[in-house]
Design goal:
This protein is an alpha/beta fold. It has one domain: Alpha-Beta Barrel (TIM Barrel). It is about 40% helix and about 15% strand. The protein has an 8-stranded parallel β-barrel with strand order 1-2-3-4-5-6-7-8, surrounded by 6 helices. α6 links the parallel β5 and β6. α7 runs parallel beside α8. About 50% of the residues are buried. GO terms for molecular function: deoxyribose-phosphate aldolase activity. It comes from Brachybacterium endophyticum. One of its GO terms (cellular component) is cytoplasm. Pathway: Carbohydrate degradation; 2-deoxy-D-ribose 1-phosphate degradation; D-glyceraldehyde 3-phosphate and acetaldehyde from 2-deoxy-alpha-D-ribose 1-phosphate: step 2/2.
Length: about 220
Amino acid sequence: MTNLDAAQLAPMIDHTLLKPEATRADVDALAREAEELGTYSICVSPSMLPVQTSVKVATVCGFPSGQHQSEIKAAEAADSVRRGADEVDMVINVGLAVAGDFQAVEADIREVRDAAPAPVVLKVIIESAALSDEQIVGACEAAERAGADFVKTSTGFHPAGGATEHAVALMRRTVGDRLGVKASGGVRTREAAEAMVAAGASRLGLSGSRGVLEGQAGGSGY
């Protein structure tokens, strides 16, 4: 377990609101709360862009299934960048990873990377709870080959579940210190957040950031 105070933990958080029923007022409130808490960023749906805030702005791409044509994901990512996104969290085609077709996984990621080049930060959601260890490793290696900046556990929407310490540790071993690792999905407590950091996470996707930082349970833990 890694013991972190709120000032150390907050800059690792993507303060997240991806509920389908979220309103513009909800997103504005999220941004104000992120500024108050000192989180690294907010993460919102593409339709909510642009957002006026002093923190970084992340959005999602191919969310939540990943079963979009690569050119559609690429167009979505490019449009989000035009609308002010600093970071894009894309979902891989999980079925390709399950089938072991990691060349296709890499090609899918690379198309989004080309559409949203650096300095945009590209995070690749592999939906780790739906994959075997071998598939997690293959997806992470494909993401690195395609030029991603982060690998990320989960959307928070898959019935198989969200982040686990085991998956985070495996992802960290696979990418070393070359890429970031983001834990998201089911991280609802301070203890869980610290456990993910101890396992190797360098970023956390949280919807209940205030509760986590104040040592209380809260949020859906995206």
